[in-house]
């Protein structure tokens, strides 16, 4: 039996599908469409399936033309078109519009080729990158190996100030084999290189570029206007090496106030309002069919950190008790207003290929928590817990945990401190405090930043020689199943041994007009991993 009941009932063909799709585009009613199907010999029981399939096909057919306008939430006079220095979401959106990467991550988190035709290696240390032919920059210059080498080597120059200098430092050798082939040598084997090259900062720029305000890339849009802290406008690249983009032009700016951003959408001034809060979600939903919410859960999280080298985290039973005390479901429901997925105390989110779904979240169990707190001898003490609006929803999370603690007689003193200076003065320093981590594309990057013995952001001061060795082994292996098994075990180790509690992976919600089509979730973040402008279209 085929995928559709029509396979069994009638000799239905793709040509017949096209007839139905054209009728839908002309505005035929559902009743008229069903009558047409009955006349063609399709049973009523199968008619709904045919219409659903045809409707989806119509919805998925890009429409050319129009001006796309969208608003993010953050901007600065330091806005840049230099991919190496990009730091805000608005920078990422612009860079994705004007430039391309060697690879990009698809919806499932798997690296796909973009400017690279192929990326190959035999030992995960020496990599051969074959470039696509026929690609040109906006100024007409052909893309060649020298452009790739220049773009990657820039990150190693301290004067550039690259945001990914530490990640790029593993690239120690570059060689142009010919005009379309680059050889990259790493200091040590790393099978994640194709994924690393999909990060926004590794966009390819023209060899020798010093003036980045022109946005001279190979991307879908040509820069027309760039006003840092104000707006940017791109027009369709008519010589683009890929199909698309669908829209004729694209304008992007920031509206920092959430209500104002949503009102701009509802009034028709913009087509997309990025990263709206729960109150605004209800306002958008109340508008009916004219607007849609696009939800992406890509790995951002707020976590509770207990330093294992300080009291009370140095007492193993205190850490165990806290893990049973955190009601993860309530945090998602109340602190995050439903905008999240329950976490299992490790940083590799469900959006990542390597996520260990077999690792279940610790159950909320106040009695077990009480047992461990008694063993730790912390009853009768007042334990400071530092929270701040700087770490998303951490204050609300702290209040929920504090209330659960009070019910079993444990006093948690929630200290709410200002956002200004939080990351310098409290994060990584206070014995019990909250952090907030943005999505990273690979377990290796997450573990290297946060959990190895020498990790620069080791929030709980977790140290494990076994963990460190496993990370090196996984990094250098080209055996995907072996890597997955190692990463799965490492996630279990973090969840059970580290002093970090990750109660939820936070969802990002973009609000869009129903006329905007083609938006898909992406593991690199909202707005389709910030690359939406190239792929979406506007219905007439």
TrEMBL record:
Keywords: Plasmid, Signal, Transport. GO terms for biological process: peptide transport. InterPro entries: Peptide/Ni-bd, SBP_5, SBP_5_dom, TAT_signal. PROSITE patterns: TAT. Residues 111-454 form the Solute-binding protein family domain. It is found in: Periplasm. GO terms for molecular function: peptide transmembrane transporter activity. It comes from the Bacteria. GO terms for cellular component: ATP-binding cassette (ABC) transporter complex; outer membrane-bounded periplasmic space. Belongs to the bacterial solute-binding protein 5 family. PANTHER family: OLIGOPEPTIDE-BINDING PROTEIN APPA, PERIPLASMIC BINDING COMPONENT OF ABC TRANSPORTER. This is Periplasmic dipeptide transport protein DppA. It comes from Sinorhizobium americanum. The gene is dppA.
């Amino acid at each position: 039996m085929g995928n559709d009941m029509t396979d069994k009932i009638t000799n239905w063909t793709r040509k017949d599908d096209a007839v139905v799709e054209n009728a839908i585009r002309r505005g035929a009613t559902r009743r008229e469409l069903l009558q047409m199907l009955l006349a063609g010999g399709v049973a009523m029981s199968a008619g709904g399936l045919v219409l659903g399939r045809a409707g989806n096909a119509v919805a998925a057919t890009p429409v050319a033309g129009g001006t796309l306008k969208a608003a993010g939430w953050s901007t600065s006079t330091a806005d840049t078109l230099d991919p190496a220095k990009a730091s805000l979401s608005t920078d990422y959106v612009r860079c994705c519009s004007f430039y391309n990467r060697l690879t990009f991550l698809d919806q499932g988190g798997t690296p796909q080729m973009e400017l690279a035709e192929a990326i190959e290696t035999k030992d995960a240390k020496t990599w051969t990158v074959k470039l696509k032919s026929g690609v040109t920059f906006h100024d007409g210059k052909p893309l060649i190996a020298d452009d790739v080498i220049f773009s990657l080597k820039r990150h190693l120059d301290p004067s550039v100030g690259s945001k990914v200098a530490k990640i790029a430092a593993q690239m120690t050798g570059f060689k142009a084999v010919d005009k379309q082939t680059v050889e990259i040598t790493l200091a040590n084997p790393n099978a994640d290189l194709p994924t690393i090259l999909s990060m926004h900062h590794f966009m390819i720029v023209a060899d020798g570029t010093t003036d980045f305000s022109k946005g001279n890339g190979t991307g879908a849009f040509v820069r027309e206007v760039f006003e840092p802290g104000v707006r940017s406008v791109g027009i369709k690249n008519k010589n683009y090496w890929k199909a698309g983009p669908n829209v004729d032009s694209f304008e992007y700016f920031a509206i920092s106030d959430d209500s104002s951003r949503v009102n701009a959408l509802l009034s028709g001034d913009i087509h997309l309002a990025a990263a709206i809060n729960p109150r605004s979600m209800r306002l958008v939903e109340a508008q009916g069919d004219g607007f849609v919410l696009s939800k992406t859960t890509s790995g951002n999280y707020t976590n509770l950190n207990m330093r294992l080298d300080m009291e009370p985290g140095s007492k193993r039973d205190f850490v165990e008790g806290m893990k049973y005390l955190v009601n993860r479901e309530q945090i998602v429901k109340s602190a995050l207003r439903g905008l999240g997925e329950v976490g299992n105390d490790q940083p590799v989110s469900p959006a990542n290929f390597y996520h260990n779904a077999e690792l279940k979240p610790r159950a909320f169990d106040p009695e077990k928590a009480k047992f461990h707190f008694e063993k730790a001898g912390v009853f009768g003490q007042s334990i400071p817990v530092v929270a701040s609006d700087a770490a998303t929803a951490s204050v609300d999370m702290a209040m929920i945990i504090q209330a659960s603690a009070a019910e079993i007689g444990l006093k948690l003193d929630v200290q709410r401190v200002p956002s200004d200076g939080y990351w310098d003065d409290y994060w990584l320093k206070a014995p019990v405090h909250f952090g907030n981590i943005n999505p990273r594309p690979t377990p290796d990057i997450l573990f290297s930043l946060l959990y190895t013995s020498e990790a620069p952001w080791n929030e709980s001061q977790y140290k494990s020689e076994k963990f460190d060795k496993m990370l090196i082994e996984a990094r250098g292996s080209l055996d995907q199943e072996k890597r997955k098994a190692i990463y799965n075990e490492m996630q279990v180790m973090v969840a059970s041994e580290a002093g970090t509690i990750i109660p939820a992976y936070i969802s990002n919600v973009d609000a869009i007009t129903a006329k905007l089509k083609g938006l898909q979730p992406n593991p690199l973040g909202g707005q389709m991993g910030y690359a939406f402008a190239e792929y979406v279209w506007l219905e007439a």
